[in-house]
Amino acid sequence: MPIDLSIDDIRTAAGVLAGTVVRTPVVPAAWLDQRHGTRTFLKLENQQVTGSFKDRGAAMKLASLTDEERQRGVIAMSAGNHAQGVAYHARRLGIPATIIMPTQTPFTKVERTRRHGASVVLHGRNLSDCAERAEQLIKAHGHVLIHPYDDPAIIAGQGTIGLELLADLPELDAVIVPIGGGGLIAGIALAVKALKPDIRVFRVEAALYPSMHEAINGLAASAGGETIAEGIAVKTPGVLTRQVISALVEDIVLVSEAELEQAIHRLAEEQKLVVEGAGAAGVAALGQLAGKLAGRTVATVICGGNIDSRLFASVLMRGLVRDGRLVRIRVEINDEPGLLARISGMIGEHGGNIIEIYHHRLFQDVPVKLAELDAVVETRNARHVDEILGALDAAGFKSRLLGRTEVEGRTV
Hints:
Oligomer: single chain
Largest sheet: 6 strands, mixed
Mean pLDDT: 91
Number of domains: 3
CATH topology of the largest domain: Rossmann fold
């Protein structure tokens, strides 16, 4: 074994965690079967108490501490899920916890961590700054560091997901796992490969943060940028986890921001799930893996559901735009009475529901005797949009869609 961790250690972790973390369900996703020709299941780690698989590793690591270490208290660096997992289980075990979070961490994540009983220190702009502050506090107070992924106890805790997957789906052919630092996929790979050596394990990274891919292949680091999958936006992947992944995990799939966003939207609409960007990465990767997995039984881990409410709302609305179910139509009209009512009536007659309407006279680059009318319209699909535009054109109104959004495979 690349590291001193075996299936027996993961089974021990399962015993330790029994009753302290949620044994999350595995549910079918028929809509993905229809799209990709697979038999697809979702492991719902977003149903953990803190909304993430991080509960498992945090609970296992904290349970492994000696009485002396517990008295010294623990410290962790995190901008979200690891922070909440450590805070919640530290309080449950009566262990003082300090969490270092970047100053730009969303208020909701900071407050959730505090509500779970941790002392939160806001410091710096990124996790590297947080690590420096954590080292200072460790030297000053002797706190025990709870690493988010590069720790055998953490990996064993996350590996219990693999045991549960094969218990529920013994016929499983492949697992697709999101990867940041690598603790989740390392634990799962160790578990499932020990029990079923021919099972295939695929790793998924955000295209903006291909850190593990670059580390394993000796490539120059390029990670950076704004990603919706902040839970796997890791610049420095684990060393222990890298060994496991190199030995046991197959191809990497890099998913774009557009693919991640669409996966979040589809999971909400088709599966009725609230999923964060990292949690949706496995679903986002299915399109690229469909050729390899057609006809196979496949599972992916929905590793978290802690998405900001405003961001989630934006993703859903942008999804309606992408599907052609919410469009903004611009119509050039003569500036004369009655035309606004006529155009509104035509859109309504053809089944469009006007959400907002804007009548531009002064600030648009149009002749003084003309005006532009912008209508935000709810529609059934892209074909329905074409029907409305066709009706406007047939009536002599010059109309077009604003923006360039991918609608059912075409740019509009």
